[in-house]
Amino acid sequence: MSTVFIRQADYTYPAIRSIVFEMLSSDEGPVIDIGTRVLIKPNFLSPAAPEKAITTHPLIIKAVAEFALEKGAQVQISDSPATGSFSTLLKKGGYTETLSDLDVTLKPFEATTAVDVGDPFGTIDVAKDAMDADVVINLAKLKTHTQMMLTLGVKNLFGCIVVLKKPEWHMRAGVDRHMFGHLIVSIYEAIKPAYTIVDGILAMQGQGPGKSGTPRELGLLIGGANAHAVDHATCLLVGLDLERLETHLNAREMGVYDGTVHINGALNILDDFQFPELGTLTMGPDILGRFMRRFVIQQPRVDNEACKLCGECWKYCPVQAITYTDRGITFNTDTCIRCYCCLEICPHAAIRASKPLAGRVIEWLRNVH
Ligand code: SF4
Ligand code: SF4
Predict the structure, then answer these.
(1) Which CATH architecture has domain 287-368?
(2) Measuring CA to CA, which residue among 172, 65, 223, 193 is closest to residue 129?
(3) pLDDT in tens, 247-261
(4) N or C, where is the chain less crowded by C-beta within 10 Å?
(5) Cβ(290) – ligand 1 distance below 6 Å
C-alpha cells in the first residue's frame, strides 16, 4: 500500500521547502545520489502568472530542485507547453526569477524516443529526456479538466508527448474518454516517475484546465511515490467519486493500481468543489448522431468579444474543426471530437464548453422526472 502525504501550506518558501523535503526524504522517496540525472516534470501548460493556477508554482519546483542538488544530482526541468514559447512561459510563470540561483537546466522537451506502451497503442513517441533520466519527479497541478474531469499526477505525464504529437493522440484516443484515460495511464507507466507532488495550494475549479477555469485556494500539497495513490487521495479531498476519474478506472482495470492508499495527514473532504460538466463524446456517424452532435451534446463555444483571433486554437485542433474569418471563429460540430484542447490552450479564455438549448432542455426534463 502506498503512502500519500497530505499537508497544509501556503506559498511561503520555508513552509513549502520543509514539506517537500519531508516527502522526498520519506521511506518511499526517490533514491538520488551524486550524479543522478533528475528530471523535474512540472505542469507548464501555457504562459501564465502563478495566480492563474494553470501551472505548477515555481516555489515547489525550487524546493524539489534544491533537494536533488543537495544530493549532488544533475537537475533538468522540462515540459512541452501546449502553447506559447518556453522562454515566455518561464518569465511569466516566475520561474526565471525563482530558479535563477540554482544550477539547473531549463528546457522544453524536443527530441523523442519510440516507446512500446503496450496494447492497443503500441509504439508511441515520448520525450527522450523523460525516458533517459534516472529519476523523474512529477509536479502536477490540481485542476479541473473539461475532457477528463481532473488533471492530477497521472495526467501530468501526458506532457511528455511532445507538442506536435499531442493533437494526433487526442484525435486517435480523444473521441473515447475511457480510451484516452487508458493512453494516459500507459504513458505514466512507461515513464514511471519516482515521486509525484500535486500542487493544490491554489487549485483550479470549474472549466479548467486553462484560462476558463477559476482559481480556488485549497492550501494543499499532496505527495507520494505512486501517482495513482496520490490522485486517489486528491479525489477524496475534493469529493470526487473515483468512478468518475478515467485514469483511476483504467489503472484498476489494467492491474497497475490496487486501489489502496495509506494517508498520512488530515483528510478534510470538501463538499463544494466545482467540477466541469462532462458531455457525451461519442455519438456515431448516423443521422441521429449528427443531430445530437449539433443540437444536444456539450460543445465548445466562443465568445467572439473575447477572442483575439490569435490562431492558437485552429492551429492546435486535432481535426481542423475550427475555421475563422475576420469576424471570429466557428466550430464544425460534426467534425469536432470534443477533446477541448481549444478551451485548454486559448490564451484569452474565449472558449467555454456548454450544451446547446435542446441539450439543456433534455437535461432539465431528466432532472424533474
Ligand atoms: S478562441 Fe482563443 S485561441 Fe482561438 S483564436 Fe480566439 S483567442 Fe485565439
Ligand atoms: S474544436 Fe476544440 S474541442 Fe473540437 S476537436 Fe477541435 S480542439 Fe477539440
Answers:
(1) 2-Layer Sandwich (3.30)
(2) 193
(3) 999 999 999 999 999
(4) C
(5) no
Q: How far is the CA of 121 from the centre of ligand 1 (A)?
A: 31
C-alpha cell, 81: 507547453
Query: Residue ranges per domain, the chain?
Result: 2-265, 287-368
> pLDDT for 124-170, tens place per residue?
999 999 999 999 999 999 999 988 999 999 999 999 998 767 777 77
For residue 240, give the amino acid letter.
L
Q: What residues contact 303, with CB distance under 8 A and at least 6 apart? A: 350, 351, 352
Q: Which residues are paired to 126 by β-bridges?
A: 113
Q: Residue 267's pLDDT is what?
A: 96
Pocket probe for ligand 2: among 298, 317, 352, the residue whose CB has the most ligand atoms within 8 Å is: 317
Question: To the nearest 10°, the Cα dihedral for 144, 149, 152, 153?
Answer: -160
Please answer whether residues 197 and 64 qualify as being in contact, where contact means their C-beta atoms are separated by less than 8 angstroms.
Answer: yes
With a 6 Å cutoff on the Cβ, whether 261 touches ligand 2 is: no
